[in-house]
Structures are given as structure tokens and as C-alpha cells.
Amino acid sequence: MKKLIYLDNAATTRVNPKVLEAMTPYFCELYGNRSSVYSFSDSAKDAVDQARETIARSIGAKTNEIYFTGGGSEGDNWAIKATAEAYRSKGNHIITTKIEHHAVLHTCQYLEQHGFEVTYLDVDEEGFVRLEDLKAAIRPTTILISIMFANNEIGTIEPIKEIGAIAKEHGILFHTDSVQAYCHIPIDVDECHIDMLNTSAHKIFGPKGVGFLYIRTGVKIRSFIHGGAQERKRRAGTENVPGIAGFGKAVELAMETLDERIAYETRLRDHLIDRVLAEIPYSRLNGPRENRLPNNTNFCFQFIEGESMLILLDDVGICGSSGSACTSGSLDPSHVLLAIGLPHEIAHGSLRLTLSEETTMEDIDFVVDNLKRIVQRLRDMSPLYADFISKQEKK
């Protein structure tokens, strides 16, 4: 069996055995419905309460500001649609960026069909929002600014504290999709003036199908899913107790080692970037060297297709992606890479490799050694590359 080197942790992570252990009792032994009044359900209530406390501490929030969801996309939809509904009497204008996750972009496009106006901010060549552009986009009718904490494809960490301060100064609600940033870098909702923040467990060695939305006290948005009175009447549906318990454990484990992981993953990330740029001609790093997620790398290689590269990497046991996992079936180049100014022909040759605390330096060197060979193999079959080399030789 070939060795597996998993470098697609931005798409999902495995469940940590300690997380699975924390979840297991709530499937078959302590399976009571958290909303029931009998004592058999007390264990389920305690598990949810404990997870809520752990998560609230991780972002400097109050426990009653944490609402469990089914994942990151639900949190985006809830924050944006419910804000639009609740604050429509104040205005109909929303500000976001061109590099958001599609859960934000498609939600904003939906609202545009229902009378709302959306400004999609450009970003610079490294994916950063320009604060002057944000200020210029604000109108008297602006009710929400929704800008991701860190980009899921190129790893750019946005100036969230400054964005939050601008929103607060103008009395505008600020939502941030923090799916990629949460438990990978420090987050404090008060320091960053964040009104709503959502994330997902499966990006931090937790289970799939569970996340949370932080809603600051005083933000008057209503339920997104209607039905029962769960989650303090704001999110109907029987609580996913095993998932929530697992999420809480994953957060506990992640926060215990946050500083060490940042240092370790940054060292591996920089080694990977340095080797690729030095040893593979006509390659480029997408996103910044600084203010970048510690586990994220994203490259473009001229004269090749990203999908072919992924297939050949898979042949030697290396898992990567050519962009967001949510758009892996699309033939179009990444909207993020186009937004930072790359032409289609270069954006098509992208490769995202996202590390974890389980990645080793030996893994990185194995990947680069094979990547060099694979890129050259694909270029040797490319008439565009042959034509380019021929023209270079004639100069």
C-alpha cells in the first residue's frame, strides 16, 4: 500500500481519536434528547453546555452568544439572510468581497434577487481588502459588512480588527466567515469588533455536520430554521449532541496547542514555499508570505493544468486540491485567483497544499521531490511550454 500524505486539511480533517472518544457515549449509551425534562437527558445537556463554554472561551465570547449549527455554510446563510430580514427597515445594502466562500457569495446573489444591493469589493494582488475601498463603499443604507477572516484558497488573513473598527464607527453590523481561521490563529470577538462569526468543526479534527454561529448580544436577528425552541429559540432542530460534544473536545485540544502548532506549521509551510519557488521554474506563490494562515500554501505552475497535476500526485499518495473543495467539480478557474489578477491560463495551473500538525518535514520534502518531477512531465507534454522554450532559446 502506498504511503498517504494528506495535504488537503483546508477541505477537511480526520477526526482525532480523542474527539471520537468524547462523542461515542452519546450515540448508544447517553442518547437522550437534550430538550427532554427527565434526568436521563441530563448527560446530553451537560455535554452541550460544556462544549458551548469551551467554544465561547476560545473567542472571548459569552456562552449565551454561541449557537450550534450544521456547519459553516449554514452559519453564513443565517448571518447574512437573517440580518437582511431584520434590518431591512434601516437599509438594503451589503458589503462583501469578491474572494468570499461561495456560501457567502451565493447568499448575497440570492438577496440581490430580492431587492438588496451588494457591493463586492476588489482585493489587491495578495488578496487583501483595501480599507479605503471599504470606507468608500459605505452608504447610509449599508446594514452589513461580511468579510472572511482568512481566505480558504490562498490563506490571506484579512485586517479584521481594522474592518471591525470601521463597521463599529459607522454603526454597521460586521460578520466574518472564520471557517479557515478558527483554532488556527487567535481570534477575539471584542478586540476585532465582530458581531457575528461562524465556523465548522471538521476543519480542526472534529466531526462533519456541526458548527456554530456567534451572535453578539444585542444583534436582533431571528431564527433561520423554524420549528422547535432549541438553541434559545433561535435554531430549531434536535441538537446533534455527539457532534457538539466532539466539536467541544476538538476546540479544547486545538486551543491547548495553538501557539506550538502555529510555530510548527509555519516552519513547514515556509520550507515548502522556499523549495517550490527555488526549484520549480515558472511557479508563483498565490497570497502573501506574511499575514498568511500557518498551514496554507497555494501555487500556480505555468503551462500545465491543475487537475492533471492532482491525478499524478494522487498516484504517489499525495492529496492536494486545485482550489476550494466545494468547487472541485468545476472546470472554471478559481474566482479567488481571478480576483487577485491572474489570467485564466495561469489560474488553471493552481495547487493548494494545506498542512496540519501531523505533517512532517519528510512529508514536505517527499511532496516537493515528486512535484518537481510531475510538473516537468506535464510540461514536456505541453505544446505551449515547447513553444515558450523555443522562443526563449531564440532570444
What report would you give on this structure?
The protein has helices spanning 17-23, 25-28, 42-59, 72-86, 102-112, 131-137, 160-169, 230-233, 241-256, 258-279, 306-315, 335-339, 344-347, 361-380, 383-394, and strands at 5-6, 66-69, 93-97, 117-121, 142-146, 173-177, 196-200, 211-215, 283-285, 296-301, 318-319, 350-354. The chain is α/β, with parallel strands linked by helices and 395 residues long. The strands form three sheets. The chain has a seven-stranded mixed sheet with strand order 2-8-7-6-5-3-4, with helices on both faces. A three-stranded antiparallel sheet has the order 9-10-12. A two-stranded parallel sheet has the order 1-11. Helix 1 (17-23) packs antiparallel against helix 9 (241-256) and helix 4 runs parallel beside helix 5. The mean pLDDT is 95.
Short description:
This protein is an alpha/beta fold and 395 residues long. It has 15 helices and 12 strands. 42% of the residues lie in helices and 13% in strands.
